[in-house]
Amino acid sequence: MNATAPRALIEIDDLTRIYPAAVPIRALDGVTLAVPEGAFLGISGSSGSGKSTLLNILGGLDTPTSGHIALAGRRISDLGPDDLALYRRDKVGMVFQSFNLISAYTALENVAFPLLFAGVARAERGRRAAEALEAVGLAARRSHRPTELSGGEQQRVAIARALINRPKVLLADEPTGNLDSTTAAQILQTLADLNAAGLTIVMISHEEPLLRKYSHAIVRLRDGRIIEHEHIRAAQ
Question: How many angstroms separate the first and last alpha carbons of the chain?
Answer without folding.
Answer: 18
